[in-house]
Amino acid sequence: MGDISIHAKNIGKRYVIGQRQRQETLREAISNAIRTPVSRIARGMDRGNKKHFFWALKDVSFDINNGEVVGIIGRNGAGKSTLLKILSRITSPTEGYIKLHGRVGSLLEVGTGFHLELTGRENIYLNGSILGMRKRDIENNFDDIVKFADIDSFLDTPVKHYSSGMYVRLAFAVAAHLDSEILLVDEILAVGDAGFQKKCLGKIKDVSGEGRTVLFVSHNMNAIEQLCGSCMMLENGTIKRYGYEVRDMVREYLFGAEDSFKTSEWVNSRDELDNPWFKPLHFYLGDEEGNNAVMPIRNGSDTYLYITGEVKQLDPALTIGYAIYCEDGTLLYWSYQTDGPEENWIKMSKGINVLRSKIPKRLLNEGTYRIECIGRLHSRQWLFEPGRNAPPIFLTIQGGLSDSPHWMSRRPGILAPIMKYN
Length: 422
Ligand SMILES: Nc1ncnc2c1ncn2[C@@H]1O[C@H](COP(=O)(O)OP(=O)(O)O)[C@@H](O)[C@H]1O
Ligand SMILES: [Mg+2]
What we know:
β16 (367-377) and β17 (381-384) form a beta hairpin. With 422 residues, the protein is of the alpha+beta class. It has nine helices and 18 strands. The structure holds adenosine-5'-diphosphate and magnesium ion. Magnesium ion binds at residues 80-81.
């Protein structure tokens, strides 16, 4: 047992549907509002036909070795946060048990762990002492924490006045610097600017280099691949896969199992992702006139992406677009209808809006691409978020890559553009 840091045996967590046991944080409230209630109820029903209960986790067993960095991936509602809450003892399992060897530092969703009335300084001490550290140990780390969080001038301000960015920065800095043997991190990368996210990733890397165990929930697949030595994929409350083939699991997460049906059209038939700003209704690939594209397409002509959505409430911060991934899970790019100068943005109107965007011929290579429809209120909140709950469709390209007699098949490299020479 000496090498084992976390031992979990048959963990189950049962919730009562529609009855939250704890006040939701704002982030949770938002993400819950755009979840699909249908799947949740269905899950409750097929497990023993108890309509009012459902298992957020069921029969989850695993061992994690000391010093491992484990990525935890899975769709929205898969049970990732529930698992971390059980490991950090914020909530207890309905069944099963866990054994932890070492103290746990955790950064769960924004809102847990900090006392809003206390200042940044006081919260650092409070968190340290909760982790069983002596005042002197905390003092030794204090300057590093403040520097990392970049909040010096607000150190003596109650954290309730912090912006969400400052709050997360401090929470992460505290969790990562205090010397707990186990660090749990839940989706921090969804918040904060790109610079800070990079800093966090670097810090997680350092922490793992010190031999501490890290469990890292993220839907940033590039971060999972870069940081994690192993990966656990949760699906409907159970472990679908757990192992060291991180890259392959990321691919499976994004592209589904080898034989799964890859459709190039998504229709919102289950009333998902409802929101007043842009409720996606239909998302598909077609030709210039809007006829459905037949897969696989040849790459000799342009393909168009059509996004139809319903707007009930106009908001100038609305941005709609797509993310495109290649088969190994690499994100190729994000595109938004607001990427150009403002006068070129598509004006949304109340009611049904259709956006069209061209994927130029001879840009992509032969292969299958995952395209997710993404929507957000710029710098405020996600409506449908890549890797998390954004509707996916698939584009398969075969042939038509160039008119040259030399290149008939897939080319080396990720892209296959035809460049000009003169
Ligand atoms: N306190 C709660 N009461 C009832 N249901 C909950 C509660 N917390 C989470 N759930 C539900 O449990 C499921 C798993 O949630 P969660 O662990 O947050 O998933 P993830 O973090 O993978 O998105 C979801 O369907 C969620 O709505
Ligand atoms: Mg979660």
